[in-house]
């Protein structure tokens, strides 16, 4: 394959900072010379050649051939397959570089249509990323996506040291990763037996959730949609499920059993009996299940935990280097022990931990308070300290959290995410952009963009603090925080945030959280509007239909 044409095109645009790119193309040329997939024709414009190059890769039959042959144990086949995967990796890198140039150079703007807005993986499988096609992505291309994920996962099995292949997923934008996750089957919404019915007591969220969840197997949770019904309430619809994610998350955030992950301090919990330990393990397990479901539903949960809480979900083994992203200052202090000539003779394998209002000594290993740290066991000490700093002696419970999370969240998708990704996806966006909210809003009834009451409404929101904005968001959508993508995320694709009018001016505002609808009476005065809104959003369960 005559790869030199692409090289020549980029060489003409190189500057002194592009030497690494030049080396990369030289290396890539060696790989592509092993497989003649395309012959470039010099008469074409060079940018068009690049497009044709990727178009040919996209259409080549090698992908299907290797997918169907992965079970063959043959040294020659594995050798060829290894080369093929390296080509895929190089294609990804080349694509990112080319896309950057196409989008940054005016003379190349006409080729923009050839490049989707996110990544080469989706380009390879002809998957469209544009917002208007969001729904069709998971319906039309589900088989392609599943094959793709399975393809790379099976590669990992064959090449035991080939974990780096998943870098091609981890480097994708977070929005792209979320697009790859299958959404609930909309056709099931009309089928009564496609639901898991969860009876929840608003006055006892955690206990009633555990009681409701104990009645079902993990398979049921993963295969069926969830239907939440609150005790002694008439409300129904999917909006109540989004509300459930929110209020359950808030209860977890305030729970003493999750307090260690609210802070980087050395905090743990005291368990007084086997019964209490079993209760905590159940709570962590079902929290993991609910976290996974919230991702599939493009919802968020109202808690905020440190990064190590999410790190434990993604890895099996941990070391001192993992601490770097959790608490960099403490990481530096720990590794500095390696360079101390004389270790403190009073330093032992224990640590002072805050439990409730008390400070107690916690052993890092058995009889740790009696074992001195020496040069010989220093690395063990550093490892144990790093683990306690990250996981607060709560590993038995975090293992349950992971077990519940993985019961719904397929391992193939699992490998795409970093702990930072999970934190953002599960906790949501922390700030609400009023301009984006306003731009995404639709109006019905007697309302329109310049209607006086609508003008008052946006002035009020624009002056409000984040807490008030989140209360109104929760009142109308069941979410206190926006998922990734904000008002363009999948929750708002079928039902954009909408304000509709009501002629009955004596009523308070109401909402339909299942359709993101705010029903706003036609108040005559601005102060009446503000008073009614402020009253409505302060009443937690008021207005949900």
Automatic annotation (TrEMBL):
Q: Which Pfam families match?
A: HECT (PF00632)
Q: Which Gene3D superfamilies does this entry report, sorted A to Z?
A: Hect, E3 ligase catalytic domain, Hect, E3 ligase catalytic domains
Q: Which InterPro entries match?
A: E3_ubiq-protein_ligase, HECT_dom, Hect_E3_ubiquitin_ligase
Q: Which residues form the HECT domain?
A: 224-545
Q: Which biological pathway? A: Protein modification; protein ubiquitination
A Gene Ontology cellular-component term: cytoplasm
The active site is formed by 514
Name of the protein = HECT-type E3 ubiquitin transferase
